[in-house]
Amino acid sequence: MARSAGVSAWAPFVPRLNVAAAASPGASNNYAGRTLRNGTNSLVYNLYTNAARTQIWGNGTDSSLRVTQSFAGLLLVDRTIPVYGRIPARQNVRAGAYSDTIIVTVTY
């Protein structure tokens, strides 16, 4: 007589997710000196990953850092990544609206 047996086991799967957020240098193409523009006028500024404003947010090149987070989750996960900015004082520029475009790339 032949017999067969089987074993069945179930274990929950908890995926680990790594997320990285990289920021472009903006119109200046320079992480060390991003610029806000109003026509031909410019205002130096930068974006940072920490409140002390010592780590420039970028893509990991030119002394910049990507923001990375790792977490486990089964369903929907909501994450906020803080960004800190600084415009150095004593820049002699005209009053007006200054702007720059930063592209943020999120990879997972």
Architecture blueprint of SSEs:
Layout: E1 16-23, E2 34-38, E3 41-48, E4 67-72, E5 84-86, E6 104-107
Antiparallel strand pairs: 1-4, 1-6, 2-3, 3-5
Please tell me about this protein's structure:
This protein has strands spanning 16-23, 34-38, 41-48, 67-72, 84-86, 104-107. It is an all-beta fold and 108 residues long. It has one domain (16-107). The strands form two sheets. Strands 4-1-6 form a three-stranded antiparallel sheet, with no helix packed on it. Strands 2-3-5 form a three-stranded antiparallel sheet, with no helix packed on it. The chain is elongated. Residues 1-9 have low confidence and may be disordered.
Could you list some keywords that capture this structure?
single chain; 108 residues; mainly beta; three-stranded antiparallel beta sheet; 6 strands; 0% helix; elongated; disordered N terminus
Brief rundown of the structure:
The protein is an all-beta fold.
Query: What is the number of independent domains?
Result: 1
Average pLDDT taken over every residue: 83
Largest sheet: 3 strands, antiparallel
How many H/I helical runs? 0
Euclidean distance between termini CA atoms: 54 Å
Strand percentage, roughly? 25-35%
Report Rg: 23 Å
Which structural class do the helices and strands define? mainly beta
H and E string: EEEEEE
Envelope shape? elongated
Largest beta sheet: strand ordering: 4-1-6
Task: Tell me how many strands there are.
Answer: 6
Helix content: under 10%
Question: Which residues form runs of ≥5 with pLDDT under 50?
Answer: 1-9
